[in-house]
Amino acid sequence: MKRIMTAFVFLLACLAATAQEVTLTVEAPESAVAGERFRIIYTINSTDGQFTPPKFDPSFSVQGPQQSTSRNVQWINGDMKAVSSTTLIYYVSVGAPGTYTIPAAQFETKKITVSSQEKQIVINAGASAQQAPGQQQGQARAAGDAPASGSEVSMKILLSDREVYAGEPLTGTLKLYTRINLSGIQELKLPDFKGFLKEDIETPPLRSLETEVIDGIQYGTGVIQRFVLYPQIPGELRIDPAEMTVLVQERTGARDPFFDDPFFDSFFSSVSTVPRKITTQPLTVRVKPLPEPRPADFHGAVGSFTIESSISGTDAKLNDAVTMTVTLKGSGNLNLSGEPVISFPQGIEKYDPKVTVRSSGTSSGTKVFEYLLIPRNTGAFEIPPVSYSVFDPKEEKYVTLRAGGFTVNVTGTPGDEESAAPVYIPGEDVKYLGQDIRFIRNGKTRLVTLSSPLVSTLHYWLWFALALFIAVLVLVVRKQQIRRNADTAGLRNRRAAKNARKRLARATSLLKSGNKEAVNAEVARALWGYLGDKLRMAQSDITREKCYSALRERKADEDMITELDRILTATEYSQYAPVSEGESPEALVERAAALIGKLDGVLD
Amino acid sequence: MKRILLIQIILMAGIVSLAGQSPEERYLQAGGLYGSGDFSGAAAIYRKLWEEGFRSEDLLYNAGNAFFKSGDNASAILFYERAKLLAPADEDIDYNLQIARSRITDRFESVPQLFFVRWFDFLALLASTNLWAVSALVMFLVALMLALVFLTRARARGRLLSFWLAIAALLLSFLLISLALRNNNLVNHNSKAVITCSIVTGRSAPGETGNELFVLHSGTTVIVEQELGAFREVRLPDGNKGWIRSDCMENL
């Protein structure tokens, strides 16, 4: 009996094995976000039996199940094969994060009871657990940025904001959403972000996908690239689509009608990798211009910052370097923030600051400006407080940050530079700030009334004519006078010999009267008269010496001059000496007449 | 009747008191207005003084400044150019004129004047027309006297010297006359004009029918070549010529 019993049991078991093995599988995500809906799917390859749902944790809010059954009857080689399956879908959401266990469900047929596996599920606390990108996902989703439903693989650029001020940093995340298996990604082509300055954030390479449920559909998601964008120009800036090729695993070949089961897929169907190109939707970002007027100490910093200043020492030695450090801290466009302008006092040589930016991956961090200062004079130098304006996009206004100034006491004697080499102090070119016209002349001025110029009046030119006329008149008169003078002289010249002979003739007639003095006087007068006329000299200023030099000038013989001298002496002598001395008057008259004849040949 | 007379007397008194302000006082008043920032008020007084026939390099320089500050670059250039005619060596005028020129629209590759023309003009402007004229007359008289000496002193020792001196004085006199004429030309009959309309078209013929050749903007200095009706032919700094409405320019 016992043997029969065992045989029966064995037979039964065989029957069950050949007819159908009942299985109950459960599909549930390994992780989910708190508050988000996810699916738990139970699949049973049987229709006749009793399904006992698991005892869900009380914090699970469960909807469903949504039940569907399918039945598939096939005739092969005269044998009938009936395959039926039941699918139950529960929509579950969990409020509190934590690790939960989904207990086993049971399925009871007439012959056998099967139970499903227990599943562990990690519920993440939405924002805080998933860090920055997760937060952006949340925001993006809230803004309706969910992947296009229906597409199996898609990609999105998620922006932290769609309306920003120029220069305000903007975080972008390029994210992949997929509902199918991918074996890899290729050829990521980012757009050129026209109008933006892009800075990549170091993103770990995509290894595994996270599970995310969006609108009830579960996606595998992964961050491909994160970056910070600094809009440079105001206006509607368009971000062109990014392109990427993903390698999709596609099932090829016939599906096994019996084992329509993911577990068996890998065994019975062949899978091939197919590249598929995916693109993002173009986006627009509205960039608002920074409000005007900008403060003078605004150097392009947009964000929320604080500023600090420090100095290496307030007591310095002459020509020893002092470092002043200005630290800009906060979140914003650190890289594009210009250096603060500090008007260092004269006597302190300033070098261009050393700038270091330390940012923590995103747009927040510190920017350090190190000013190397070398005091070139002794004394107390006042470094004014640093004033640096930034634009705060949250408050939409300029905020002026201030950091303390310092007083540096410089000691030392100018002469004792440690090295003998002369210190070269470079001169600095004068800085020109602007250009303007020079100021007016405010003193008194001599206002001259406009008068017609002399050159355009006739009387001015008449003056020239008058002057010329007078000059010509003077010239004419003078010329006439000269000519007249010249005429009288010529007359005298021509008549000189004649007059002299007349006088000598009178002297001869006087001889008869015996008046010796009168004869001598007449001879002298004849000679002097002749010489005066011929040499053009007035009788009043004629002397013997003048006569002789004039005669010599006219190339007269020396004999003639001696003869003349003798005759003149004789006449003078006989005039004043007693009578009967010297020559007879007759001889004197003859000699005088002979001399005049000779002189007439020389003088003309 | 009596009342009318009284009113008339009061009116007359008012006019007299207005007119009683001497030109120098008005000049200083304009300087005060300029200092307090009322540039257009100052410019109006300076212009009035100019129109009444008062001349002084300071007046014209200040007028240029006042016009520049009140935004009228064309008038500023006009007055700086006028001031330059009275004080060609004044560095402030040159500087301000250059700044005013840098603010106007038209830019030209100007054809530079020949250096001796430039020097001669500069020399001519160093003294007033009448000073040149009087010195030319004096120099002519000197030349005549030296000529008389040469012609009458037949045997005098300095005859040759007086001849050369006479020639030199005569040449100098001619030079002075030409300087006087040039100065008169530059100061009183200058052919330069400054465009005052903000934009004006230069055409190939007088009238509105000629082909359009160029467009000028206010502040550009042109040289007037001839006038026909309401149009003037102007030469641009780069040497091109065209006809422009006369009311769009103001002579120096």
List keywords for this structure.
heterodimer, A: 604 residues, alpha+beta, Immunoglobulin-like, seven-stranded mixed β-sheet, five-stranded antiparallel β-sheet, 38% strand, rod-shaped, B: 252 residues, Serine Threonine Protein Phosphatase 5, Tetratricopeptide repeat, SH3 type barrels, 60% helix
Note the topology.
The complex is a heterodimer of chains A (604) and B (252).
Chain A: H1 2-19, E1 24-27, E2 31-33, E3 37-44, E4 50-52, E5 60-76, E6 79-94, E7 98-102, E8 106-108, E9 113-115, E10 119-124, H2 126-129, H3 131-142, E11 153-159, E12 163-165, E13 170-178, E14 182-189, E15 196-201, E16 210-214, E17 217-231, E18 235-239, E19 243-252, H4 262-268, E20 270-279, E21 283-288, E22 298-311, E23 315-317, E24 322-332, E25 348-350, E26 354-359, E27 364-375, E28 379-383, E29 386-392, E30 397-403, E31 406-411, E32 448-449, H5 458-513, H6 516-534, H7 544-553, H8 558-576, H9 585-602
Parallel strand pairs in A: 2-10, 12-21, 22-29, 23-31
Antiparallel strand pairs in A: 1-3, 3-6, 4-8, 5-6, 7-10, 8-9, 11-13, 13-17, 14-19, 15-17, 16-17, 18-21, 19-20, 22-24, 24-27, 25-27, 26-27, 28-31, 29-30
Chain B: H1 2-20, H2 23-35, H3 39-51, E1 54-55, H4 57-69, H5 73-86, H6 91-102, H7 115-126, H8 129-152, H9 159-188, E2 192-195, E3 199-203, E4 212-217, E5 221-228, E6 231-235, E7 241-245, E8 249-251
Antiparallel strand pairs in B: 2-5, 2-8, 3-4, 5-6, 6-7
Helix pairs in contact in B: 2-3, 3-4, 4-5, 4-6, 5-6, 7-9, 8-9
